[in-house]
Write a sequence for this structure.
């Protein structure tokens, strides 16, 4: 799924403290949105292994970004986790 500019702006405004699309917390939010969409797709299409591979890549990228965010700014990290309902 390709996100349009307006959709990216809406997601960015919800999770960013500053209005920057390149910010790590915004990247995590955009990846989370795409991961949720792809998860729903894979529940319907169980044999779509190519999309499953892409999903694993996105999850790993989000994991690395969250690790970086936790190291650089713990407040953004906890804000992102709570806002996106990633972990308990």
């Amino acid at each position: 799924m390709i996100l349009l500019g307006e959709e990216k702006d809406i997601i960015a405004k919800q999770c960013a403290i500053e209005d920057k699309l390149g910010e790590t917390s915004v990247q995590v939010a955009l990846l989370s949105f795409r991961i949720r969409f792809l998860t729903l797709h894979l529940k319907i299409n169980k044999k779509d292994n190519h999309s499953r591979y892409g999903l694993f890549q996105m999850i790993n990228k989000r994991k690395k970004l969250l690790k970086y965010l936790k190291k650089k700014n713990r407040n953004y990290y906890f804000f992102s986790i709570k806002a996106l309902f990633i972990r308990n």
User: Anything to note?
Assistant: The radius of gyration is 13 Å.
